[in-house]
Amino acid sequence: MRSLLAPQVAVGAIVIKESEILLVKRNKEPSKGEWAIPGGSVELGETLQEAAEREIKEETGIIVKARDPVYSFDLIERDEKGEIRFHYVIVDLMADFVSGEPFPSDDAIDARWFTARGLGGIKVNERTKNLLRKIEFID
Fold first, then answer.
1. How does DSSP assign 26-83, residue by residue?
2. Is residue 1 part of a domain?
3. 54 is a domain residue
C-alpha cells in the first residue's frame, strides 16, 4: 500500500446521451465491483476538464467535452486499524458526449450506457446514487 502524504484530487464525468448515463464497473478499490461514474486522478498540470476528458477516454474509449463541476465530495476510507487507505477529493463534472462506443479498459471491468430504470438491477455505488439524485437522473 502506498503512503499517503496528502489527499489525492480526482474527477468524474457525468456523460448523458439520449437519456442514458455512462457508468463503469470498477476493477479497483475503492468500490471494486460497483458501478460508478467514470473518472480518475488529476495529473500535475491538468485542469479538471482535461483530466476528466483524458480519464473517460482511457477508462471507456468514449470522447467527451467536459464542462463545469456540479458535485464534489471527500472519499476517506480507513482499514480495520483505523489507518487511512484512501483519501480522495472528488470533483464531478458534466460532460458532453462527442463520440465512441463504451469499451472497458484501464481500471474498469465493464462500461455501459444505462437508463434510469436500468439502474435498478445493478449494484450502484452509494455516492453515485447520491449524485444521480442531485442531478435528477433518478428519484
1. ESSSSSTTSEE--EEEPPTT--HHHHHHHHHHHHHS-EEEEEEEEEEEEEEEE-TTS-
2. no
3. yes
